[in-house]
């Protein structure tokens, strides 16, 4: 049974940084893509970044490119999202997700999700 557990959210001032973690368990993830998504109440879930576990290839939403970095630690089975130069519009609940195969920006093709962690950026 795949389990994803996010941590690292919190409140930060604009311009600050946070690092989110997603601890994955339940199987070998070498053939998986891991994604970060975010959602604001009343809006659709939005793609942020993704990484392919096997070769560390990455893909970013234009809105976070150059500010956020996704990475993974094989030994810890953990995926990270380093968020720098945060803006108030980055405020959302951030979710970690997993799917077998290639990176996708579509939430519906990810079969496994964490519970989410709140990120609040104050102006």
Q: How would you sum up the major sheet?
A: 7 strands, mixed
How many β-strand stretches?
11
Gross morphology is globular
- As a percent range, the share of strand residues is over 45%
- What value does the average pLDDT take? 96
Helix content: under 10%
Which class do the helix and strand fractions yield? mainly beta
Outline the structure in words.
- This protein has strands at 3-7, 10-13, 18-25, 32-39, 46-52, 58-60, 68-73, 78-83, 92-100, 112-113, 117-122.
- By secondary structure, the protein is mostly beta strands.
- Strands 2, 4, 5, 6, 9, 10 and 11 form a 7-stranded mixed sheet that branches.
- A hairpin with a 6-residue loop joins strand 4 (32-39) and strand 5 (46-52).
- The termini are far apart.
- The relative contact order is 0.32.
List the keywords.
123 residues, mainly beta, 7-stranded mixed β-sheet, 4-stranded antiparallel β-sheet, 11 strands, 52% strand
């Amino acid at each position: 049974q795949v389990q994803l557990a996010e941590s690292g959210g919190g409140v930060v001032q604009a311009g600050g940084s946070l690092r989110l973690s997603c601890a994955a368990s339940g199987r070998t993830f070498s053939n998986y893509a891991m994604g970060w998504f975010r959602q604001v109440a009343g809006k659709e879930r939005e793609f942020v970044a993704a990484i392919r576990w096997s070769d560390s290839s990455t893909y970013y939403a234009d809105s976070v490119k150059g500010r956020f970095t996704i990475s993974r630690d094989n030994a810890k089975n953990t995926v990270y999202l380093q968020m720098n130069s945060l803006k108030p519009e980055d405020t959302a609940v951030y979710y970690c997700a997993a799917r077998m195969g290639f990176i996708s920006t579509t939430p519906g093709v990810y079969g496994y999700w964490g519970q989410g962690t709140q990120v609040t950026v104050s102006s």
